Each structure stands twice: as structure tokens, then as C-alpha cells.
Amino acid sequence: MSPLHPLDEAATARAVIDGNGTLIHWNEGARRLLGYPSEEVEGRPAADLLASPDTDALPGAGDDRRSGVLALRHRDGRVLSVWLLAHRLERDGGWLVLTPLEGREPRAPQDPLVRAVLAQAPCAMAVYDERLRLHGLNDAMSEVIGLPEDRVRGLRVSEISSRGAGERLERAMAEVLASGRGRDVETYARAGGEDRAHHWLARIAPLTDTHGRVIGVCVAAHDFTEQYRARERLQLVNEASVRIGTTLDVTLTAQELADVCVPALADFVSVDLLDPPENGGEYRVGPPAAPVTLRRAAHRSVNAGDPEAVIRPGDADVYPASSPQADSLIADRPLVAPNGDGTLEEWLSWDGPHGRHVREYGVHATMSVPVRARGRILGVVVLSRFRRPDPFTADDVLLAEEVTARAAVCIDNARRFSRERQTALALQRSLLPRSLPRTAALEAASRYLPAARAGVGGDWFDVIPLSGMRVAMVVGDVIGNGVQASATMGRLRTAVRTLADIDLAPDELLTHLDDLVVRLSAEAGAEGTAAEVGATCVYAVYDPVSRRCTLAGAGHPPPVVLPPDGPPRRIDMPSGPALGVGGLPFESVELDLPEGTVLALYTDGLLESRERDVDTGLRLFCRALEESPQHLEGAVHAILRALLPAGGAPDDVALLLARTRGLAASDVATWDIPADPALVAPIRKQVSGQLEVWGLTAATFTAELVVSELVTNAIRYGEPPIRLRLIHGSETLICEVSDSSHTAPHLRRAKTFDEGGRGLLLVAQLTQRWGSRHTPEGKTIWAELPLLGEE
């Protein structure tokens, strides 16, 4: 007889009888077995097929399952002994009767040697025939399945074991039966009546007769639960090393620890940490004293929504000595509290809400493990079980210690990083301007945002008032992050303000700044090697009188300009080398900016992202700038919200928006001065007349003295052409005298009998500020007079 496929339903005799004992279904297998076609038996009492009048052998109305031997009458009159297995069918209210093909009850092997092998085998063994029905098994296998041999003999493994494991094992047995080659199968099932499931290795081998024909299979089951759990523990440790510490964020790291332990090790895990010491100190080395104040960093439950959590993440609570958290920290070792020994009940008494939740969810085992790194205690992890019935074992404690130790180092690293980040951020913010100056040339708004996860970088911005009501704008980015980058940023910002104060052109200013970065690199290096100190920068100067802007860049993204009557566009300008390269020139570009133009300067962190390229970021930026509100503060907020992800920027971001203003022609007066000292007096009269027009008569005396001194010095020491310009601002009056000489005046204190040398000293005492700047045509000496209280 060839092996029969175990899933060939047509080969199995099946019949269905209702609760009255009437046959209502007869399949092809039953016809082949007993010879009756379905039309002859369906609708007849099932008892008519019995060879004896004993109707008690048929299933009764109160039975859910029955098996045994029946004597049935064949159509030709023969009596067949068959093995019957009956299941109750809810949908038909009757019974499904399964009859094997052969007309005899499956028996265990009669060979005493075979019986002895089965009985004395050290492992659980079972023998299945060529139809994969149980032929015999030993006592060890009976203990594994939890049923005696006489109750399962003749059944398939899928009818004995749980559906999933049984069907999988039965398919493997069919493959062995068909191929004649043995194989191993891992399965998961409960042993006997135990609540705890075991892992089994089923070794399936073919059985052959003297002619080499496969007549069945032998299944030997080996319990490798401990080896499997050891493999699970190793896998959990490896998973913890990969999943914990992916960021330098304390809260996320604590959450990763809880996520790894649930459900692999516990049903609920809470991570409570000590608050960082004040003034940036280190955590204590020894265990703390009770009571202990801990802050919930994270927790995780097998139940959605963490309904059994009393404390929410971010909240702090005080834990007395009777709590698992405090007891574990004071003992400085893991503590396990199984239900029933009194420890868990004692722990529950310390807090009413905790106790109610533990009783409500049926927590039967709790383990608390201190979080310790580099010899210092950081907090405690509490693991609880309420869905899993098994208690914590010694191996579970070792596993929890190993996972917690790995997480503790990551938490400590995250806290050290956070402390350094806060220090760098505090330094960064202290070095950035607290507020932007109010100027008549433009309205400005700015924002600096540190990176969400990475270290604080060296992005900076500034708005610097210059002479002649001009304004300088600068945005830069120092390479690197941390305290060193913030300190370098502060030095560069100070250098820019110093160089801007002497009115250097943008390209010249970047040249001097490049030299400074080269020197900083040399100073930061060791043993003659230069450190990697570098930066990018864009510097712009806007003149409200001419409404022209001069820009120069050093490896920085060009600004974006939004005209009052057109779409935004990126300024086409030479990018220039980054600061610190050294030896390469910088170029500037000039462009007209109508009044109301918005100039946007930014760092690359605003545009760059892992989800998009720079060009896409630029398009989003231009669209957000065009659609932003008129108020610049609102525009800054709208742009950052449109371009940056919800979790924060991956890199530092500095953004500076400036809307230009123009100075009316009526607020500027210009005179060409002949190189004749005798004409200084008429010039003073013209200045007095102009001030009267502007309503600044109170400033006439001071303005005449300043103009007289500056014009006289230009005629005496300068070269023609000479020009005088007065600029009427809202708070200042600016006097400028220009000539074509490149020699700059110097303030000096005259001696008692000197006839000269007191002019510029007088100017310095009468004005708010004064200075000089070089131009392509020569130089300009300027002075600012305050107008507070005027008009």
C-alpha cells in the first residue's frame, strides 16, 4: 500500500448523523469502506449499519467527542471492525464520524522489542503508521501530550496537539513519509497540564519494512526550552545594544529601554531617574537615603495606552523605604518580589493608588533594578508581570541587569551631552544679540534655533548700524558644534563688529575675517598642526539714501530678496571661499533695493534636510517668504514652521529678515565746497538755513561748529573735490565731509601753547559719534549729533 497523503479527505470515510441518530451525510470514503452508496443510507437510522444491536456504541446527545471500535455490516454481508472518532457539529446539531480506511483498530506494535524500545527510551517517542495515525507511544510522550495512549491511539497529530503546532508537525511528517528522509521541526506547546509553554525539537525519522518500504514515521520529542530561552536572552541583549542609545536624548533613551523589555521580559516597565544635580555636578557614588525623589522618564505596557501607570512621564514622586524603587536603590542591587512571600504586599502598602492598580491588574511579580553607570546611581527600572503567569527567575534578573547596564551608559552619555549642550546653548545665546537695533534704514526680525538632537552649532546673525544711516547685516555659520563652536562664533561676531566699525567694504571685511580664522586655526592646533576651524559668512551693507546694497559672501548660501512688486529670487552673487581657506580673494556685488524690499539672510540648516534636497528647500523657502505676513516677526515664524520638521531642525538655523526703508530726498542736503577757506562762513549760513527748514534751530550752534571744523580740515589737508552732506534722521543729525584724499585724520590732545590740534577734540566732545570711512573716491569724515528733545 502506498503512503496516503494525510490531507486527502476523500480517502477518509465520513458520515454525519443528527441528534436522532439518522444519517444525513455519507461521503465517498464511506461508500468505498462499506459499499453503500449515499442514496441507500442517507435518511436511515445509523443503527441499521451496526453488526450488533448495541446502539450504545454510537455517540450520544451529551457527548462532545467519542472514539472506539465499532462492528459495522458491509453491503455484501461481511462484518468489518473499524475505529471510530466522533466530533460534535454545532451547525448541524449532529455528529461527524471519521472512520479509518482499514477495518481494524490501530494497535501498538506487538513486537516486545519494539515495545521495550518505546518504554525504555529516555526521550518522548511516538510511532505513526503510513496514514500518519498514532500507532504507539511511550510513557514519556504521554506525559508530554497529557493524555494516555488508549485515548489518542489512531488519531493524527493535528487532532492531538494545538491546531497550529499540530498541522505544522503533520506536514513535516507527511514530507518524511513521502521522501524517506528525516527532518527536525521546532514547535511550541505546553507539556502535560503545565501553564508554562515549552519549546520542543521534534526529530522525525522514517520507518521501513524488510523491503525498505516506508511504512510509518517515528517522532522523538526533545524539550529544549532552556536552550531556547538562553537564545532568547542573548537575542534580547543584542537587540538592546542596537535599539537603546540611538539618540543623545535622555527621555528617548529611557523609552527605548522600556520598549525593549516589553513584552520580552515584563508586561509593564517603568524607568524613574534622579533629577540632575544642581550647578552641573556629578551624581552621588553611594546609594541614596530614603525617601527618594524620582522623576518618571518613560514607561511601557503590553496594554495600549498604559492604563496601569499611576505616574505620567515627566512627573516626580517621593518613594519611601517600603517601595520597590527606594528599596532597590538603598540596597544597590536588583530586588525581586513574588506575590505570596509578603514582600509585594509590603510594597503595595506604601501608596494607595499604586496598590489599587497592582491589585486591579493582578501583578504577581515585580523586579526593580538600579540604573548605574560609571559608579554612580542614575535611577531605577521596575519590571512587573501580570499577563505572563511565570515568576521572575534568576536568569531573568541577570538579563535585566545586563540590559539595564547597557541602557545606563547610554542614559549617562545622553545626560552628559545634554549638560554640555545646555552650556553651549547658554554661551551661544549670550553671544548673540538680545535684540536688534532700531534704525531708520530698515526693519529687522531674526530667530536662532539650535539643532533638535545634535550639538549646538556656531550659527550667528547681527545687525550693525554704520555711519551715514547705513546698516550692515551679517549671517554666519561656524563649522562644528559644542562649546568650542560657540566660543569661535563669539570671536568672529566681535571681529565683524570691530571691522564694520571702521567702515570696511564687504569684500575687504571678509578678507580680514579670513585672516583671523586662519590664525585661530593655527592657535587651536598642536605641535605646529592647524586645527579644523572654519566658517561661512555673508555680509551686506544697505544705504537708505542711495537705496543700494553691497554684498559679499564666503562660502555661504546667497540671500533671497523679495521685491515689493515681484516674486522672491535668490541673489546672483559670487559665493567666495569659506573662511579659513586663506589666500583667495572675495568679490562683492551691488544691487538696487526699492523701499519695502525684504532681504532674507539664513544658514544652510534652514534648507537642508534628509527628506529633500537644497533646491526643493529653496523653492519652499521662496514660497513661504512670498506667502508670509507683512509683519516680519510673523513672517519669521511662518517660514520656520513651513520648512522645519515638527520635531525640530536637524541642524542649527539662523534666519534674519530685513525690510528696507528709504530716506526722503528732502531729508538730505548736499553742497560742493570750493577749496577756499574764505568760503567757510557762507557754508555755515547755508547749513543754518537748512536746519531752520528742518526745524532743528536748537542744534544750529553745534552743527555750525562741527561743519566749520570738518570743512576747514578738508580744505586745509584734503584734496578737491570736497562735498558736504547733511542727513536728517529721526534721532540724529549727520554731518559728512568728503574729499579725494586717502589720508585719515587722527584725534590728538593739544599742548598748552599749541595753536592747533583742538579741532577734532572739540568735534568729539560736541557729537554723539564721529569717525571716518574710506571710499573708492577718497574718504569721508562724519559726525552724528543727537536730536533728543528737538522738534
Automatic annotation (TrEMBL):
<dbReference type="InterPro" id="IPR000700">
    <property type="entry name" value="PAS-assoc_C"/>
</dbReference>
<dbReference type="InterPro" id="IPR036457">
    <property type="entry name" value="PPM-type-like_dom_sf"/>
</dbReference>
<dbReference type="InterPro" id="IPR000014">
    <property type="entry name" value="PAS"/>
</dbReference>
<dbReference type="Pfam" id="PF13581">
    <property type="entry name" value="HATPase_c_2"/>
</dbReference>
<dbReference type="Pfam" id="PF13426">
    <property type="entry name" value="PAS_9"/>
</dbReference>
<dbReference type="InterPro" id="IPR001932">
    <property type="entry name" value="PPM-type_phosphatase-like_dom"/>
</dbReference>
<feature type="domain" description="PAS">
    <location>
        <begin position="7"/>
        <end position="54"/>
    </location>
</feature>
<dbReference type="Pfam" id="PF01590">
    <property type="entry name" value="GAF"/>
</dbReference>
<dbReference type="InterPro" id="IPR029016">
    <property type="entry name" value="GAF-like_dom_sf"/>
</dbReference>
<protein>
    <submittedName>
        <fullName>SpoIIE family protein phosphatase</fullName>
    </submittedName>
</protein>
<keyword id="KW-0378">Hydrolase</keyword>
<dbReference type="InterPro" id="IPR013656">
    <property type="entry name" value="PAS_4"/>
</dbReference>
<feature type="domain" description="PAC">
    <location>
        <begin position="183"/>
        <end position="236"/>
    </location>
</feature>
<dbReference type="InterPro" id="IPR003594">
    <property type="entry name" value="HATPase_dom"/>
</dbReference>
<dbReference type="InterPro" id="IPR052016">
    <property type="entry name" value="Bact_Sigma-Reg"/>
</dbReference>
<dbReference type="InterPro" id="IPR035965">
    <property type="entry name" value="PAS-like_dom_sf"/>
</dbReference>
<dbReference type="InterPro" id="IPR036890">
    <property type="entry name" value="HATPase_C_sf"/>
</dbReference>
<dbReference type="Pfam" id="PF07228">
    <property type="entry name" value="SpoIIE"/>
</dbReference>
<dbReference type="GO" id="GO:0016791">
    <property type="term" value="F:phosphatase activity"/>
</dbReference>
<dbReference type="Pfam" id="PF08448">
    <property type="entry name" value="PAS_4"/>
</dbReference>
<dbReference type="InterPro" id="IPR003018">
    <property type="entry name" value="GAF"/>
</dbReference>
